[in-house]
Every structure is written in structure tokens, then in C-alpha cells.
Design brief:
Largest sheet: 3 strands, antiparallel
Radius of gyration: 12 Å
Order of helices and strands: EEEH
Number of helices: 1
Distance between the termini: 18 Å
Structural class: alpha+beta
Number of strands: 3
């Protein structure tokens, strides 16, 4: 997974193994919410 969080107003995420597979776009607030939740939950599976 590759995350570009250096752009104003948007965080872009893509699969590094499938560079032609598209890019997900998140607002910085939504991305930070995801990161915070992932830190709380930790690895699953």
C-alpha cells in the first residue's frame, strides 16, 4: 500500500502491487480517523 499524504486537501492510497488498479481518495480528516481506529484495533486475523 502506498499513501500520498503530502497533497493539500486529499490523501491518495493505492496498491503498490497493482499500480494500474486505481487510487482511493480520502479527505485528510477521514484518513486520520481510519489511522486512529487502526491503531486502536491493531492487527486482525
Amino acid at each position: 500500500m502506498e499513501v500520498a499524504d503530502n497533497l493539500p486537501g486529499v490523501v491518495l492510497v493505492r496498491d503498490t502491487k497493482d499500480r494500474d488498479g486505481g487510487t482511493l481518495h480520502f479527505s485528510p480528516d477521514n484518513w486520520q480517523g481510519f489511522v486512529n481506529l487502526a491503531k486502536q484495533i491493531g492487527p486482525v486475523g
